[in-house]
């Protein structure tokens, strides 16, 4: 990893030495923290209620959508594999084990019988907790019920609570700057799917989003139920530049929804990602405290995970609570950057992978070059730079590519500085001390 700070000593005309220092700020505009407002499933009131509130406050959100129940979607949930009757018949004589658990867990959610999806979810959750034998027993119970009912017919599992908006509205929201990402076709427990069904859920959701919105909306994904299963993550991280489930960056301390964050702790990473999932009974005071906690530091990214809103969806949060919470976040806007999951990820990665080269031209000009080997298709965020200057410099102008203009000189305990926006794809940055 390249250093983010480069020092260069020069002899000034006054014969005093000065250390020029340029650094990329941790967050845009030198803010103290970042927040991403993310939503799972794509239920109706996320768009009908929460999104308009965000837009009133000039906030953008990230929506991880299950595409299979969107009315005009091309790809629907389906089971891939052997004849279901053969699988069901085998369960009468062959117990579920690691030899067949993935196939059976993949099929069970499609059987036309009461509780089919629940059996799948219970088995998947138990499997991820490492209780393999118990997960197998749950599936044996499920197939025993299927045999008694003589169930063979397959139906698409109904996952989403309430109506779904269609792609025409989603395209409009995407044009307005909101991020959309993969959340699978039909919200299964991916950890207990066999490879064909696991890949179908991820790949066809991906393909649907690309066809409807474009490749730029394939940056991030969220595998359902916040899974961190190693097998699932291997597939997902190979398929997408980022997942909300896991971001295995050397510089990032991940504290997911089950973890605890201590704002007073001395973490040894450059950044902290702290996920919180507000539920229907989460108090406003607790939700506000998460915002307050991240403002005691300058390295924390709070990723909020919402599901249901105002009576529709899992753990639905009332409209008034969402509104007051977003207004509370907005009241801290001088110190908090609200960015989509993609924007924050891209900014951090660019900052950590962008070295700075500085040259001094005489006594009144600095030439700064940003370089990055990251894929420019995904990584084109403007970065906020901060350059410290000699006290004798009192009128500064910046030039980069097709832009030039004055900069305000500011001061902190380290000295005089200017703060400005730059992009590694726009070529050299020139800072001039205007002496006329």
Overview in brief:
By secondary structure, this protein is α/β, with parallel strands linked by helices.
Write up this protein.
It is a single chain. Residues 1-16 have low confidence and may be disordered. The chain folds into three domains: 6-28 and 353-433, Immunoglobulin-like; 32-75 and 159-333, Glycoside hydrolase/deacetylase (TIM Barrel, Alpha-Beta Barrel); 84-149, no CATH class. With 436 residues, the chain is α/β, with parallel strands linked by helices. The radius of gyration is 26 Å and the shape is elongated. The protein contains eleven helices and 19 strands. The strands form four sheets. Strands 3, 4, 5, 8, 9, 10 and 11 form a seven-stranded parallel β-sheet that branches. Strands 1-2-14-18-17 form a five-stranded antiparallel β-sheet. A five-stranded antiparallel β-sheet has the order 12-13-19-15-16, with no helix packed on it.
Rg is 26 Å
CATH top level of the largest domain is: Alpha Beta
Largest sheet: 7 strands, parallel
Q: Which ranges are low-confidence, i.e. pLDDT below 50, for 5 or more consecutive residues? A: 1-16
Tally the structural domains.
3
What is the count of DSSP helices, taking H or I runs of 4+ residues?
11
Helix/strand class: alpha/beta
Report how far the terminal alpha carbons are from each other.
41 Å
Q: Can you tell me the CATH superfamily of the largest domain?
A: Glycoside hydrolase/deacetylase
* CATH architecture annotation name of the largest domain: Alpha-Beta Barrel
CATH topology group of the largest domain:
TIM Barrel
């Amino acid at each position: 990893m390249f250093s983010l700070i480069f020092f260069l000593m020069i002899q000034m005309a006054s014969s005093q030495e000065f250390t020029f220092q340029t650094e990329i700020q941790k967050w845009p505009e030198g803010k103290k923290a970042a927040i991403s407002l993310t939503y799972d499933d794509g239920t109706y009131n996320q768009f009908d209620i929460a999104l308009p509130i965000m837009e009133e406050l000039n906030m953008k959100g990230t929506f991880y959508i299950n595409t299979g129940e969107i009315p005009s979607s091309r790809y629907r949930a389906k089971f891939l594999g052997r004849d279901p009757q053969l699988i069901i018949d085998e369960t009468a004589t062959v117990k579920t084990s690691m030899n067949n658990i993935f196939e059976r867990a993949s099929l069970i959610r499609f059987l036309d019988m009461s509780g089919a999806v629940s059996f799948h979810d219970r088995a998947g959750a138990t499997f991820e907790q490492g209780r393999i034998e118990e997960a197998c027993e749950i599936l044996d119970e499920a197939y025993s019920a299927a045999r008694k009912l003589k169930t063979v017919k397959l139906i698409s599992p109904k996952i989403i609570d309430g109506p779904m908006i269609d792609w025409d509205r989603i395209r409009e929201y995407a044009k307005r700057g909101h991020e959309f990402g993969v959340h699978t076709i039909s919200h299964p427990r991916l950890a207990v799917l066999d490879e064909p069904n696991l890949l179908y859920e991820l790949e066809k959701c991906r393909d649907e989003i690309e066809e409807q919105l474009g490749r730029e909306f394939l940056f991030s994904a969220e595998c359902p139920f916040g899974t961190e299963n190693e097998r699932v993550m291997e597939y997902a991280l190979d398929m997408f530049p980022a997942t909300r489930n896991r971001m295995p960056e050397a510089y990032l301390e991940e504290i997911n929804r089950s973890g605890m964050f201590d704002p007073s702790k001395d973490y040894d990473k450059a950044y902290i990602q702290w996920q919180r999932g507000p539920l229907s009974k989460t108090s406003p005071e607790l939700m506000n405290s998460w915002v307050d906690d991240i403002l005691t530091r300058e390295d924390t990214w709070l990723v909020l995970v919402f599901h249901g809103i105002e009576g529709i969806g899992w753990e639905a949060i009332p409209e008034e609570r969402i509104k007051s919470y977003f207004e509370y976040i907005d009241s801290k806007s001088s110190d908090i950057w609200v960015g989509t999951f993609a924007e924050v990820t891209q900014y951090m990665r660019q900052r950590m992978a962008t070295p700075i080269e500085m040259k001094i031209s005489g006594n009144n000009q600095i030439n700064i070059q940003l370089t990055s080997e990251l894929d420019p298709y995904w990584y084109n965020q403007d970065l906020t730079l901060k350059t410290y200057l000699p006290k004798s410099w009192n009128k500064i102008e910046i030039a980069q590519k097709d832009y030039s203009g004055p900069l305000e000189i500011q001061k902190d305990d380290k000295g005089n500085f200017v703060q400005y926006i730059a992009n590694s794809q726009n070529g050299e940055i020139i800072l001039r001390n205007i002496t006329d």
